[in-house]
């Protein structure tokens, strides 16, 4: 999905009304400020004994009559000084208030809204997105996009637009005094702006490449952090360091020689052209004044305004440059936000959303199910078997045979290409996905631990569980075997900043967490990592306690667990090759028998 400039504009759409009046306010103040050089010019005319411009003269007469004075040079000077006081001293706090208050208010509020939307997007993206993009890449893209939008808004709304309006105002005033100077001014302004924009276009393209490079570097840094144990175990610190340094060097080359130098050259050419134009205007006005075609007051007004205008073009170009530098990362944020949601996106993001409260006996039927991540390459083919309520079924097969994929389909992370899954006779696609998933629970091979207390982690799926229920689940899952070893029992902080739990302890925590949900179907993905004997025995005990209470599906990597299952489904290359009890399958003398013999001789399944 591609994004464009209008996505950036839409980002702030919610605050359109405040934006319109605050930008108009800021722009008006930039115009009002222009009264100063004009008034100074008029003061000079008074001081040098020349006449005022007709409009100002009638204003002085009108004001003098209001205060009962006769119009003379003194009243004119008081009037003109009063005008300068109003547009400078009185204007200052109001202008700062609008700029600092409203522009930043919009920037910060939009950041809050959009961060919320980004979190919603993260929660609703299809699960395969996370197979293809790691945390560092996603987090980096979102954070850069949000920050750049936030910084850009006050610069564009509070500075760039008002400055452009100010330049237009200057053009109008110069035009009223000497149209030929204003024509030169306008042409030079447009040419400088078009030239700068043309050059910026090229630089934005290079910025885009830089952004992609940066994302790749961030992604690898995040991988290094999450896989630091592997990096260290292979003593690959130097290799990783070198690879990242090379990437940074490549980024520096692009940003220094491709982009930075581009901006420097652009600035050099632009500033020289601007100074030259200003000099031409100054010279033309000087000769016009010397030749008696212009008053000294108008000469001062024009040269001051021209200097103001040309000095405003520089910040306008600089603001455009800064925006260009941020542009591609903002677009990449919108590309991320436009990613299609997963088919489970309907899952409620708001806690109060109602969903049906299902209750299943737990009969699961895989009916002629075929599926492939890539539609042309099926990973599972014509899978057909039934799990009766409260049965324990073990899925067995070599790595890559499709066991996990079958479970992913049960959780509706993906839809089958043909066939389907029925629960108590109803196709799961006909059920509300939230209500349905609430009745399932899974214990992954690697149990995720959130930073918080052990209790928080146990109650993750069911925050309303009672203490007695927690204790019961912990007893079944053999969590209580290590509970007393933790310094503060249930209140011990575990996870990122707390006590480290071993693989076996994590799995037992995972089982207790799943049991607390009281699911109708429990899926247990046995840890492949070799657990110590004690942990393995505890987990087996826990599994034995669960059997017969609810439908249980075990992705088995150890045959010791499988032996106890009511039914064993042996998968090979995405198809069911054997199905039956441990004894039946041994008697068949097929794949299962071979796997069993291998394990008996000490080889892992
Ligand atoms: N997200 C994915 N996108 C594309 N292909 C995938 C994806 N996940 C798994 N596969 C492929 O699907 C096939 C089945 O994988 P699956 O993870 O289901 O096997 P498994 O039996 O659970 O293996 P293991 O025991 O190693 O976990 C494999 O060929 C794998 O490469």
TrEMBL record:
Pfam families referenced in this protein's UniProt entry, alphabetically: ABC_membrane (PF00664), ABC_tran (PF00005)
Q: Which residues form the ABC transporter domain?
A: 364-598
Keyword field contains ATP-binding: yes
Q: Which SMART domains match?
A: AAA
Membrane topology classification: Multi-pass membrane protein
Residues in domain ABC transmembrane type-1?
20-325
Membrane found in the keyword field? yes
Where is the protein situated, by its record's location annotation? Cell membrane
Q: Tell me where the transmembrane regions lie.
A: 76-98, 167-194
Q: Name one GO molecular function term.
A: ATP binding
Q: Which UniProt keywords apply?
A: ATP-binding, Membrane, Nucleotide-binding, Transmembrane, Transmembrane helix
Name the predominant localization: membrane
Q: Which InterPro entries match?
A: AAA+_ATPase (IPR003593), ABC1_TM_dom (IPR011527), ABC1_TM_sf (IPR036640), ABC_transporter-like_ATP-bd (IPR003439), ABC_transporter-like_CS (IPR017871), P-loop_NTPase (IPR027417), Type_1_exporter (IPR039421)
Q: Which PANTHER family match?
A: ATP-BINDING CASSETTE SUB-FAMILY B, HAEMOLYSIN SECRETION ATP-BINDING PROTEIN
Q: What is the protein's given name?
A: ABC transporter ATP-binding protein
Species assigned in the record: Pseudanabaena yagii GIHE-NHR1
